[in-house]
Every structure is written in C-alpha cells, then in structure tokens.
Amino acid sequence: xxxxxxxxxxxxxxxxxxxxxxxxxxxxxxxxxxxxxxxxxxxxxxxxxxxxxxxxxxxxxxxxxxxxxxxxxxxxxxxxxxxxxxxxxxxxxxxxxxxxxxxxxxxxxxxxxxxxxxxxxxxxxxxxxxxxxxxxxxxxxxxxxxxxxxxxxxxxxxxxxxxxxxxxxxxxxxxxxxxxxxxxxxxxxxxxxxxxxxxxxxx
Length: 203
What we know:
Layout: E1 5-10, H1 14-25, E2 30-36, H2 39-46, E3 53-56, H3 65-75, E4 80-85, H4 90-98, E5 103-106, H5 111-122, E6 127-128, H6 130-138, H7 145-155, H8 160-167, H9 171-185, H10 190-200
Parallel strand pairs: 1-2, 1-3, 3-4, 4-5, 5-6
Helix pairs in contact: 2-3, 4-6, 7-9, 7-10, 8-9, 9-10
C-alpha cells in the first residue's frame, strides 16, 4: 500500500489553518502531519519529522513563508514547497520562484483544485496562476538583497544607527543603501519606499 503524502501546513490565521487541514485530510492520498503558526515553528518541526510537502502563507510573524521556502530549498531540496496566500503580487511570485517554490496559489482556490495542484507539484510541475505569471515576467524587483534587508528594518522603525549595528555596517553605508532603494522605487523617503516595496511584493 502506498503511504499518503505527508503535508505540513504553515499559516498564522488559526481558522484558515484548520480549514485547510480539514479539507486536505479528506483526500485519501494526503495526511496532514503538522499545523504550524509561522515559519520558525515549521522549520523547527522539520528538523526531526519527515515531510513531503510544505504549504505556507507568505506574511507571518517572525520567519516569513518566503524565508522558510528558501531555507527548505537549501536544506531539504526533496521537499515540495507551495505558497497559499491572499497576495496576488508579481513581486512575491518572483521571489517565491527564486526561493524554489513550485506552486503559487490563492486562498480562494477551490478545495478540489488545491488538492490537484499539490499532486501536480509532486509530479515535478509548477502550478501558477497564468495571469500572475505573465505579470511577473514584466515586473522586475529592482532591490538588492541588502537594500531589501535595510529597507525592511527601517520600516520596522529602526534608526540608521540601529540598522548599522544589526547588519555590521557603518551608518554611512546604511544611508547609501536606503538612498539607493528610495531612488530605485521613485519614493519620497524611506517610509514611502517601504510602502511601495511592500505593495509590489518586493519587501
């Protein structure tokens, strides 16, 4: 008898997490082995429990779904990762694909389509909304990883000095990163830059 596919679900909204688990557990070839509220909890779980597929949200406290996907891709390349989110943003999609994600699905996807999408991902194919995929090819993320990191910290309210201390760079270097990000995004200031980056899915 073939063992069911082991699914790990990662979602910070308890109601959605429970609904996804109940729906996917109805499928005979799936079994939900874990329900985690954030990326850090999911990562810790994977250190000692076998998983075949991880379905994760993107925006969660602590470790985001994209950060989790990148870590899984590097440490557990055999594990299939799919994103289930409310954010139909091309920037998020591009970053998800760069992180090794095999599927990008929206939370309003019908249950039977979700199950079929997981099976398609397991077969080695990508599952992405066609319109979103087309848009992603046209929208390039202009930020470097360091600019993104600094802008994210600035958006959290950290001062230039605090950011410099956290990333082990000088305050002048941090100001340069912020200036580059502001210019690339056509923003008025760091707050406006963070808003634009978040709206586009770059942050």
